[in-house]
Amino acid sequence: VIDLPGEYLTHPHLRRSFLASVQDVEALLYVQDAAAEPPHIPAGLFQAVPGLRLLGVVNKMDLPTADLERSEKHLAALGIPEPYYAVSALKAESLAELRQRLQNENLLPV
């Protein structure tokens, strides 16, 4: 499991570090803040890593400014396939479907 800061994706001079960091990674769990304007990430960046499985999560769905549609459009533009998982830290049950997929695909750390 690698937790990379978003700056690795949004700052051009750090993208090389992102690409180097994920070369041996099986899957990428991309988390988009539902209340924030989506960051600029170049199209095709994730596809530059052969065999990388992509999963999209939209968090902070409990906030009044959450915009699920905008967030899902952003995930799609990045080439992240559906389904997307809308979650909230205030509602543990919102994580159940995502947790089940991670278990089914053996992506949870042991």
Explain what you see.
The protein has about 110 residues and is an alpha/beta fold. It contains 4 helices and 3 strands. A 3-stranded parallel β-sheet has the order 1-2-3, with helices on one face. It is globular and about 35 Å long.
List the helices and strands and how they pair.
Layout: H1 7-10, H2 15-21, E1 27-33, E2 53-59, H3 68-77, E3 84-86, H4 96-104
Parallel strand pairs: 1-2, 2-3
The side-by-side strand order for the widest beta sheet comes to: 1-2-3
Q: Find the count of extended strands (DSSP E, 2+ residues).
A: 3
So how many helices?
4
How many angstroms does the end-to-end distance come to? 10 Å
Overall morphology: globular
Label the structural class: alpha/beta
Estimated share of beta-strand residues:
15-25%
Helix share bin = 25-40%
Computed Rg: 14 Å
The overall pLDDT average reads 93
Major sheet description: 3 strands, parallel
Low-confidence stretches: none
Order of helices and strands: HHEEHEH
